[in-house]
From TrEMBL:
Localization (cell): Membrane
InterPro entries from the UniProt entry: CD20-like, PI-PLC_domain, PLC-like_Pdiesterase_TIM-brl, PLipase_C_PInositol-sp_X_dom
Membrane topology (UniProt): Multi-pass membrane protein
Transmembrane segment boundaries: 331-352, 364-383, 390-416, 468-491
UniProt entry keywords in alphabetical sequence: Membrane, Signal, Transmembrane, Transmembrane helix
Protein name: Phosphatidylinositol-specific phospholipase C X domain-containing protein
Organism from which the protein derives: Pleuronectes platessa (European plaice)
Primary localization: membrane
GO cellular component: membrane
Domain Phosphatidylinositol-specific phospholipase C X, chain residue ranges per copy: 49-184
Length: 521
């Protein structure tokens, strides 16, 4: 779901959504007849690149999709389901009620003259005709019918390969021509769905507009690679004192926030010319087809490299990783940065101190560049916690693995440097003769005192230089422990994400024997 890099599910009451209303440029429609212009493209998802995950798209939908009956207080839609799909709606919201062996579509206590099977048949016919499209369905059972509705839906879909029921977030190429279910606490099939804090009760339409903006901000913060995020523009004043006359139709008519769906989808088609990559496999050959964007300022080779390297699944924030992480990586990152800066500072002291550094340190300047690397590892630790995508967490693990090697190398090099520290040139007669013409004329007693002071100063200098090397060795050991800890935590976070996805997939697999039993009867 991508529009301005926001991950949102727009759930519009179709009355407010908008298209072609009696020839006027307004954002409201209550005409039951759908009139599409000749230039309108029903299959707007054809403009979405195959590698885009659903969590990177903005998908328009309808709240209480089938609520076309029930009087002013209950009617939410003017168009039939088929017309909604042709108008561009790709998200359906269905409340179902189980009676005997049938699932009926309801709105409150009002039967909407359709069964759930009839809805599925209509959607299947649509995606069969427009194979580039995918339709997302949210099923809301009655509170006491969760288990019953789940089992009956499984029975209806059977082993249909054109229905997506697993919890993994698919890309567009995987779900073209398919129905995608969305799971919540009351429905266990499909990809996870989270909602923003929306209120359906409306007493003031302007307040509703402001609330929508707040919801969009919440959705932008909550979006990620593992969940679909839904927000509402619909509402009704029924059941409130101040808004008792605000029917769903009135709210939709007065609500000026939604933009024209036609313009939104046209804009989405307009950017479809960006570089895209598709793969076709045949016998003994795999063909990569790449479409270059002629409007891009980048040369074709750069566009190809970018398309091959960029993966939305890897580069989007994962809510499962965010939930698995704590503040550990930030703490470890701070320790990385501290050790790195101390390496640089103390290393500069050794490099500028006479005989404080051996030839290896002088030639390689390893305290400086190792300190820079340790600081970089710390920054990556913090980024991997603040923006926990698969890409950043994996890079953080790899960098810290190299950090382990660098820390071990630093321990060895500083140990060698400490052993080699020697101020042999201090307090020698030939050295003093070269730098002090007064030494030969001094008395033996005075010369002895100077030599004694010199030896004491040399002892202090050696102690200082060896202490600095010792501190750097301790810091390198600390860096080793921090790097190992960061690697272990990163791997645990990645494994916990995989286990979470496998657990959700397993929830469906445990019902496979029941599905097979039902389909054979």
């Amino acid at each position: 779901m991508k529009a301005g890099h926001k991950c949102l599910f727009f759930q519009h009451v179709l009355l407010s959504v908008i298209l072609l209303c009696h020839g006027k440029d307004v954002f409201f429609n209550d005409n039951k007849n759908l009139i599409l212009p000749g230039s309108y493209k029903v299959a707007w998802m054809a403009g979405v690149q195959d590698f885009r995950t659903l969590s990177l798209l903005t998908i328009p939908g309808t709240h209480d999709t089938m609520a076309r009956y029930g009087g002013p207080e209950g009617k939410c839609q003017a168009w039939t389901l088929n017309d909604q799909l042709r108008a561009g709606i790709r998200f359906l919201d269905l409340k179902v009620f189980s009676l005997f062996d049938t699932l009926y579509v309801m709105h409150g206590v009002m039967y909407q003259r359709s069964t759930f099977k009839e809805v599925l048949d209509t959607v299947k016919a649509f995606v069969s005709e427009f194979k580039t499209e995918a339709v997302l369905i949210r099923v809301q059972p009655e509170p006491l019918e969760k288990s019953t509705v789940n089992n009956k839906v499984r029975s209806l879909i059977g082993n249909d390969q054109h229905v997506w029921v697993t919890s993994g977030m698919p890309n567009m190429g995987q779900v073209r021509g398919k129905i995608v279910f969305l799971q919540e606490s009351t429905f266990t099939l499909g990809i996870p769905l989270v909602e923003t804090e929306g209120k359906s009760k409306v007493t003031n339409v302007k307040d509703k507009d402001n609330r929508i903006i707040k919801q969009l901000n919440q959705a932008n913060e909550a979006c990620g690679g593992d969940n679909a995020v839904m927000t509402y523009t619909s509402g009704t004043g029924f059941g409130t004192f101040g808004g008792m006359f605000l029917t769903p139709k009135r709210v939709a008519e007065k609500n000026h926030f939604p933009h024209r769906l036609d313009s939104s989808l046209t804009a989405k088609q307009a950017v479809s010319g960006r570089m895209s990559v598709s793969i076709t496999k045949g016998e003994g050959v795999t063909v990569f087809t790449m479409t270059v964007d002629p409007k891009s300022s980048c040369p074709p080779l750069c566009q190809i490299i970018k398309s091959l390297c960029y993966s939305p699944v890897w580069c989007t924030v994962s809510q499962q990783l965010r939930a698995a992480q704590r503040m550990s990586q930030s703490v470890l990152g701070a320790l990385h940065i501290m050790t790195g800066l101390l390496h640089i500072g103390l290393g500069v002291i050794l490099l500028n101190g006479r005989s404080g550094s051996g030839w290896v340190m002088d030639d390689t300047l390893f305290p400086v560049w190792m300190g820079v690397l340790f600081t970089l590892f710390g920054v990556m630790c913090i980024l991997s916690e603040k923006f926990p995508s698969l890409c950043l967490v994996s890079i953080n693990v790899i960098l810290n693995m190299t950090g382990v090697a660098f820390a071990l190398t630093a321990i060895v090099l500083y140990s060698i440097n400490m052993a080699g520290v020697s101020l042999w040139w201090m307090c020698r007669d030939d050295y003093q003769l070269n730098y002090d013409d007064q030494i030969p004329t001094m008395s033996t007693e005075k010369r002895g005192r100077i030599m004694e002071s010199c030896i004491y100063a040399r002892h202090l200098a050696l102690m200082l230089l060896r202490s600095i090397n010792g501190v750097l060795i301790v810091l390198s050991v600390l860096e080793l422990c921090v790097a190992i800890s960061s690697v272990v935590l990163g791997i645990k976070d990645l494994r916990s994400k995989d286990k979470g996805e496998n657990k959700k997939t397993g929830d469906l697999e445990q019902y496979q024997p029941l599905l097979e039993e039902i389909t054979t009867k």
